[in-house]
Description:
This protein is of the alpha+beta class. It contains 1 helix and 4 strands; from the N terminus they run ββββα. 8% of the residues are buried.
Amino acid sequence: MGKRKKSSRKPQGPKKREPLATVFPCLFCNHEKSVTVKLEKKVGVGQLSCKVCGQSFQTGINYLSAAVDVYSDWIDACDTVAKDAADQTGRDAASSYRDIDVSAQGRGGSETEQDRHAANNAIDEEEENY
């Protein structure tokens, strides 16, 4: 006895790839599809610009780069700037607090000596009363 004959399937062609996006949402104005990326591979520059708020960014590219690479470089650059600004603000705040403490010590040096002297006198008077 023989096996059953399977129905033959037609050969499938290669899957069609969806093209990568060249339009993205803006980080600053939050508008969808407002950031466009243009790649100039001969020059080696990727340019990004927002149609709504006018933000722009340029970065170096190579022959393998795509629009999404320029967009991700922009995101990384924005994160770096925000982190540096936060660190700088933290340093400024910490140094201003230090300046306040130092200036308070400088101004209050004679006052604290007077306060100590007055406190010692008060303690001596209390001991005498007992």
